Amino acid sequence: MPRPHLYLLAALLAALGISQVSDRIDPYHLDVLTGIGINIILAVSLNLVNGFTGQFSLGHAGFMSVGAYAAAAFSLFLGPQLLGSAGGTPFQQGCLFFGALLTGGFFASLAGLLVGVPSLRLKGDYLALVTLGFGEIIRVIIQNVEFLGGALGLNGIPPYTTIFWVLAFVALSVFVVSCLVNSTYGRGFLATHDDEIASEAVGLNTTHYKIVAFVIGAFFAGTAGGLYGHFKMTITPTGFDFTKSVEIVVMVIMGGMGNTLGVILAAVLLTLLPELLRPIAEYRMIIYSLLLIVLMLVRPQGLFNFKLGKAKT
Amino acid sequence: MSEFLQQLLNGLSLGAIYALIALGYTMVYGVLRFINFAHSDVFMVGAFIGYYLGKLVPENTVWGGLVVLLAAMLGCALLGMIIERLAYRPLRGAATLNVLITAIGVSLLLEYSGQVFFGATPRTFPAVFPSANYSFGSLVISSNQILVIVVAALLMVALQLIVYRTKIGTAMRAVSLNPKAAQLVGVNNDVVISFTFGLGSALAGAGGILYALNYPSIDPLMGVMPGLKAFVAAVLGGIGNIPGAALGGLLLGTVETFVNGSQWSTYKDAIAFAILIIILLFRPAGLLGKFTVEKV
After folding, report:
1. Mapping DSSP to helix (H, G, I), strand (E, B) and coil, where does residue B134 land?
2. What count of CB pairs under 8 Å joins A to B?
3. Rounded to 5 degrees, what angle do the CA atoms A220, A36, A54 make?
4. CA A65, CA A145: separation in Å to the nearest integer?
5. 3-state secondary structure of B118
6. How far apart are CA B230 and CA B225, in angstroms?
7. Strand, coil or helix: what is A277?
């Protein structure tokens, strides 16, 4: 991709442009668009871990919840002190929200580091289970922390999430992930994915690459959580359970692991499907699980992966 | 002291159920080297078979209970073999990740089809076995607890006999040791793997009935937590190792019961995962497992 920085700039300007006309867009469509954006961030960041680096994390929703809680706590507890009781100007609110999102991302990546360092010595099934276990531990801990609202969750989070922030972070996550894996340094992720033993034999520190992938993936999951919390205005520990992790995993697998464009398409499709299929909402998870099985049997390289002969698994 | 004994007893009866489920994980891992995520949902199906059959047989009779138990084991064995035939066999030889993803898919499929067919609301499991409480001093033992421990012990002895004293058991161990070599000397791998799934799933079915007798509220997602904990038990004992799974199950059940009785009870669900992480960090082969170096 030549001149990726220009693409990022163009995407940010486009986000600004869309946000200028957002009051003319139907609010329902705007909500769906926000949901799509958040899912794209989640799927693209998980793709760095599960796709490019070839690890299998089932705890992405856990990192999302850490980010959501950290960001919400930031704007709930620090916001009134920084902005005063009047609530501040829109610009001040924007700065506060940006800070909240970065805080969310920071704490999520910290959690990613804490989880990654011990568990990334494990492979395949074991890693999947340990990340799942960590996701559950995070949930149990949040449920037991009094000032985060316990099992009832946090309410009354200011609705700072606008379409601009969502699109900007979508652009940022896609930019960071694609630049990273296309850089000289980033070849290490692909090498770790392709053959861990061979990469170690040529002197790559695969554990290092796995942890970096984990931390960056967790960072964006955290910002996605922050956006989600300030969009829904209320978060509960059970909102970020195993099912949410699976949903993100399905997006990555459907798009084709290690294929950013495909993953984005899958995230769009899988966010739109439940909206279109509202009458059969109870079958949603059945459809997801059948999708997983059938994809693995028939098209393990993913639905939107058109690079023939490069079916990497 | 008597409270300690009481907790120990409760822990052992919970651990016996974990052990039964853990055996299924361990056996499948032994022959196919992958974690059968759907195992915990086979356990759930076992409980539901018991629920529907339990209404047909007279309550509180030993033979009625045994019929329910055997039917659940048979039904689950069939289910396990069907899952293996349809979902896992076509992927034999595929990358581990693909098989793992399929297993997660099968697990979710069973859970959410269960929610549609059985309904998501919890049901009360019928008392198929006669129940009574016996007290020794301040120690109270329910007949269900005794039943769990006795049935689990019998099944584990039977399993040990099958694996070490029969022809198919020898074939199972051969496939587990080296599938290609086993095939060369005339073992039909497909039959052995199918049998392993059947056997493991039958134990999960028995576990489902026993669990439902002690915790008589069943729903389609009931398998998730016991399943995960049983898996932890299998890893704790050393995955692929049958006595290890039994030991791991008993240990985990006991620890969990003691945590539940302490001031840390709200963290009870996190304890199993904490144990899993510690074990994998310090002794990844488990308590009874052998450590093997990866060969290129």
Report:
1. strand
2. 116
3. 45
4. 14
5. coil
6. 8
7. coil
pLDDT at site B210: 93
Whether B169 contacts B162, CB under 8 Å: yes
Q: Where are the beta strands (DSSP E) in chain B?
A: 123-124, 133-136, 139-142, 217-218
The tokens for B281 are 């960090």
Cα A212 from chain centroid? 15
**Strand, coil or helix: what is B133?**
strand
Structure tokens at A83: 């902005």
Q: Which residue has the tokens 């770790």?
A: A192
Q: Which residue of A has its CA nearest to B91?
A: A297
State which residue of chain A sits closest to B108, comparing Cα positions. A289
The answer to the question of residue A192 being in a domain is: yes
Interface of A with B in 90-149 (CB under 8 A): 118-119, 121-122, 124-126, 128-130, 132-134, 136-137, 140-141, 143-144
Q: Decide: helix, strand or coil at residue A272.
A: helix
CA A15 to CA A79: how far, in whole Å? Answer: 25
Query: What is the domain range of residue A35?
Result: 4-241
Quickly list H helices, chain A.
4-20, 27-46, 60-73, 79-83, 90-119, 124-144, 163-182, 187-194, 196-201, 206-232, 242-255, 260-276, 284-298
Asked whether the predicted pLDDT for residue B98 surpasses 60, the reply is yes
> Is A286's CB within 8 Å of B98's CB?
no
ipTM over 0.90: no
With beta carbons less than 8 A apart as the criterion, state whether B243 and B30 touch: no
CA nearest B31: which of B169, B185, B229?
B169
Domain count across chain A: 1
Enter the DSSP assignment of A235: B
- Domain membership of residue A282 (yes or no) is no
Mean pLDDT score, A153-182: 90
Q: Could you give the CA distance from residue A119 to residue A134 in angstroms, rounded to a whole number?
A: 10
A270 domain residue, yes or no: no
Check CB contact under 8 Å for B108 and A54. no
In whole angstroms, give the CA distance from residue B100 to residue A289: 13
Cα(A41)–Cα(A62) distance, integer angstroms: 15
Residue A309, pLDDT above cutoff 60: no
Contacts of B99 in chain A (CB under 8 A): 296
Instruction: Tell me which of A309 and A140 has the higher pLDDT.
Output: A140
Q: Are A286 and B276 a contacting pair at CB < 8 A?
A: no
Residue spans of the domains in chain B: they are 2-223
Residue A32, domain member (yes or no) = yes
Find the distance separating the first CA and the last CA of chain B, reported in whole Å.
Answer: 54
